[in-house]
Amino acid sequence: MNPITKCYCRLYQLAFRLAMPLMPYREPERFDSIHALPSLFSRLKIRSVLLVTDEHLRQAGITAPLEALLKESGIRCTVYDRTRANPTVHNVEEARAQYLQENCQALIAMGGGSSMDCAKAVGARIVCPRRSLNQMKGLLRVLRSLPPLVAIPTTAGTGSEVTVTAVITDTEKKHKYTMNNFTMIPRYTVLDPAVTRTLPSFLTATTGMDALTHAVEAYIGGSTTARTRRLARKAVRLIFENLETACLHGEDLKARKNMLRAAHIAGIAFTRSYVGYIHAVAHSLGGQYNTPHGLANAVLLPIGLEHYGPCVHRKLWELARSARIAGAYTGREEGAAAFIAAIRRLNERLGIPGNLPQIRLEDIPVMAAHAAREANPLYPVPRLMDAKELRELYRKAADRR
Length: 401
What we know:
With 401 residues, this protein is of the alpha/beta class. The protein has 16 helices and nine strands. The longest helix is centred in the middle third of the chain and has 23 residues, at 226-248. The protein starts with a helix and ends with a helix.
């Protein structure tokens, strides 16, 4: 990256860091069970809701207890269950039409990050009916309050129940883009480990690695605070201690609860401290190949951390100590290497591959350009890179050896 662009990026990031204490961050009101929702809706005088989820969750019966609970409580629940793994503009417009047709008063997002992203975007389109999603991409484009939104994560990974972000895929352009607005933070969230109990092992693994990526990228960036660093360290420790157990013993509600907590606090950390190039590259892979976001992050995390080089050694050493991967007397370079190696070993034990063979070399320049536009100048990364430099991350992720 040329010096003028670097200077612009760092000044832009500095301005955001200085303004951070003045920004209207908030955290959702948190409940431990879906059984708290009838009284919440009674308090809000809401009688009709749209439940945004996906077909697999509904067919598996995971949404059934919630649907039955709302019906028993006299609350009409309309279900939109066609959300894709990477929600599309079409998904959002379909769900919005259903919300309006059924005269709904609130949104419930039940599922992984895709359902929550879809519901956030639906809320944005409801309060901004004359603007397309494309016109709302980027930062602070939606200033009106969304309809009441309850986020119920069924995966412990995305942290979307506490973030300002929705990621939407434009299938025509094969491109993902982000919408970042404080109004899109859900007003309420339910962290109920019972709804994650039947999540398949591989999805538990990849969504858990997504949460780890949130925590690590939030920690190594340049816009951290004492609180976000503390939350990120705690999330990293919880994930290393509980993710494998949650994958191998899905009925272990203690491990499930700890993973939900880890994803939640990692979400708080990266909402305030942002993510980095690993996320930007993962988003471009989702847009190009529909690669699941958690899988892309899991594969890219050790590759990206190595690619940053010595500028992240100290912070990775600190995370290694927090997760009890390295001792107090381990050197920084050695501790950083141990942390990256521990991520690779965890991926291997969880059955996550070391590369993404779907990446085609001829697609890399376009994807790298998308990633660079997403990350620069907003993401306060440890080392700035342009599209040309980012291409190496894709090549390493595609390596079949």
